[in-house]
Amino acid sequence: MIATDVRNRFVTSSRPQRIANRWNAAYPAMGTILDTVIQAQRAAQQPTVDVARLERVRRELGQQDRGTFKACTRSPGGFSIIDAFSQVREVVNVTSIDHADAGAILRLCAELADAVAETAVAHRAERPAVPVQSVDGGRPERADSEQTEGGTR
């Protein structure tokens, strides 16, 4: 069960609780689906999905659920909205449309997608504008790549 303590200044105060509710509704089914697909693919003569990737997704979903997921080795453990969205999308890709919990998984995926988009928009708005620089060094007569050491072509 994930915590609702989100340390991202771009996420609204109500979103962590909504994500936690949807996560808790979908997480058990996601684990079951991944276990089933991985087992079936291991038994298949010609697997149709990357089993190692699904095993990584299953492991990372467990880490997300426990709050120990690390996006990189130097980051503190926690719940990553962006990585959770990517992992849930992997589950959606192998979930049958008529699965009993497909709706819960898709609602979680949509909630995470909204949170990722909200974060990206807020982050872009916060970044300072970078002035545009001319590629040719400001000389309209010819580009730097056309010049030689002697200053001629």
Commentary on this structure:
This protein has helices at residues 15-43, 51-66, 81-94, 102-126. The protein has 153 residues and is mostly helical. The protein starts with 14 loop residues before the first helix and ends in a 27-residue tail after the last helix.
Please give the structural blueprint.
Layout: H1 15-43, H2 51-66, H3 81-94, H4 102-126
Helix pairs in contact: 1-2, 1-4, 2-3, 3-4
Please outline what is shown here.
The protein is mostly helical.
Largest sheet: none
SSE series? HHHH
Q: Tell me, rounded to a whole number, the average pLDDT.
A: 83
The quaternary organization reads as: single chain
As a whole number of angstroms, the C-alpha radius of gyration is 23 Å
> Could you list the spans in which at least 5 consecutive residues all have pLDDT below 50?
none
Strand tally is 0
From the spread of the alpha carbons, the general shape counts as globular
Class computed from helices, strands and strand pairing: mainly alpha
Helical residues, percent: 40-55%
Estimated share of beta-strand residues: under 5%
- Count of DSSP-assigned helices: 4
Terminal-residue CA separation: 68 Å
